[in-house]
Amino acid sequence: MLKIRVEAGPHRRFNTPMKVRLNGSLPKNGFFVLINEKGERFPVQVFKNDEEIELYWILDNLEAFESKTFSLIREQSPPELSTPLLEAVEDEDNVLLFLGSKMVMKLVCSKEMSKPFIYPLNGPRGDSLTWNGPPDHSHHRSIWTAHGMVNGKNLWLEGSDCGKISVTSILKYSGYVFSEINLKVAWKDSSNKRLVDENRVIRLWNIPDKQWLIDYSTTLIANQGNVLLGDTKEAGMVSIRVRESMEVENGGRIENSWGGVNEAETWGRKANWCDYSGPVNGFWQGIAIFDNPLNPRHPSYWNVRDYGLMTANVFGVTDFNGREDEKGGLLIKSGSEISFHYRIYVHEGDAIEGRVSEKYLDYILPPKTLVTIE
Fold first, then answer.
1. How confident is the model at residue 324 (pLDDT cuts 50, 70, 90)?
2. Per CATH, which fold does 86-364 belong to?
3. What does pTM read for this prediction?
4. CATH class of 2-80
5. β-sheet with 194-205: strand ranges across
């Protein structure tokens, strides 16, 4: 029997995504669950990655310095679980993620749009926390990726003289632990010339309290020659436009990992994470973006505005610093690639009430695991 011991370390862990790599093999047939010392059963997703096996599950609760041991059990028939399926459903050009009968988010991939984007993204109480195409910046598409200077071409703004970012293929995966959407994407200029290719992965973790965690990764591949991502604040490997009621101008709040508050203390600053929260139909809710320490130029600069924009941008160094001796352009040489990884955390309350700093620690310093076979 395979056993997994999980140690919290000096931090409390609550609804934490977990991953364990195993050498060897597991039976191809049957269904797997994890069982703790109390006999409680938890869904697990099993993937084969090259010569390794990867196990994924959600760690429900573990106090600081405590540990738990789980047994991996194979069953012949589908297990009865209290956790509902997180299902990915295609609807024409879109992919919708449902928890039971309720939609969590929709990925819009229509070729009529200038780029793929997530809208809506519903918070813990079922209300969308983002805004698609607000009147002041109609190119702000809820949650998206774009850049305003790709070999000098503008793919940030929208219009006949701007480029487009189009999905060429979609793969989706449903599960009890997470649901995932894999996109292949082509970035083209206004004359339809291909500039760069992209692989994008959006993984929604099945968190019981609906304070969602979304792993958002993008890899840009220079298949068409050198690609220069220029020095501009009009760019973001992940960008969010919060709904109108959450804006600082309407009573909302911006916070970053260093304690900066609102645009005056966060715009153009480097930080490990940034959070935007505010009132939504009578309840305070928020969205945070976590910058992965492995990302280029970590920690990221942030283009974050009182009018509702929050963008992780490592490119706009001249705009942010106001200096000419340091440039933010980033070159991807022909035949090579560059990757960015983020986690989006959707929560109730502000950054303190939502325990954003704790969730960031879970992301970069997850609990330790020890695997044994008995």
1. confident
2. Beta-galactosidase; Chain A, domain 5 (2.70.98)
3. 0.97
4. mainly beta
5. 164-173, 178-188, 194-205, 213-221, 337-348, 283-291, 273-280, 253-256
